[in-house]
Design goal:
single chain, alpha+beta, 6-stranded antiparallel β-sheet, 4 helices, 6 strands, globular
């Protein structure tokens, strides 16, 4: 019985030895995701941090000639689902990763002050048309891994 327990512990250790840490996953995502983004200006606004991610998006108001930047801030632990789809944008097929959960959007004005904050239920990353499906699936897998490590309870895609 003692030998069986030791053997079981050994195999359990081997299985978890290849898992990436949260820090390694964050580092990989920070190196990978911004460089593959469709719009390089907004890619500079993506920051994967220890407990959350910030991503910039553009918003131009029609009533006021001021241009705002909207930063979506999502804690990994608040993620509910992560999926991808291919969508036509400006005549080209691009992949998009959609992340749902309970997040926050901060509108930033010209002088970098937070103008307003609102709750949002989803955010996304849009990738260059040249990015292959395999690369998108790797990013989705990394995001799901990070969310799980940080305590998120992801919805099971295969319920029905």
């Amino acid at each position: 019985m003692k030998k069986l327990l030791i053997l079981f512990s050994f195999f359990l250790g081997i299985g978890s030895a290849n898992a990436q840490t949260a820090e390694q996953t964050i580092e990989w995502l920070q190196a990978k995701v911004p460089s593959l983004q469709k719009d390089s200006d907004f890619a500079k606004g993506i920051k994967f941090k220890d407990e959350f991610c910030e991503s910039a998006s553009s918003m131009i108001t029609s009533s006021v000639p001021t241009r705002f930047n909207e930063f979506h801030v999502f804690k990994y632990s608040k993620i509910k689902s992560i999926s991808s789809l291919q969508k036509e944008i400006m005549g080209k097929l691009c992949y998009k990763i959609i992340i749902t959960g309970n997040f926050q959007a901060n509108e930033i004005g010209d002088n970098n002050d937070v103008i307003s904050t609102k709750s949002i239920e989803s955010t996304d990353f849009v990738f260059n048309p040249t990015v292959e499906k395999d690369e998108i699936l790797r990013i989705v897998k990394a995001l799901k891994h990070l969310a799980t490590i940080k305590g998120a309870k992801l919805l099971d895609d295969n319920l029905f």
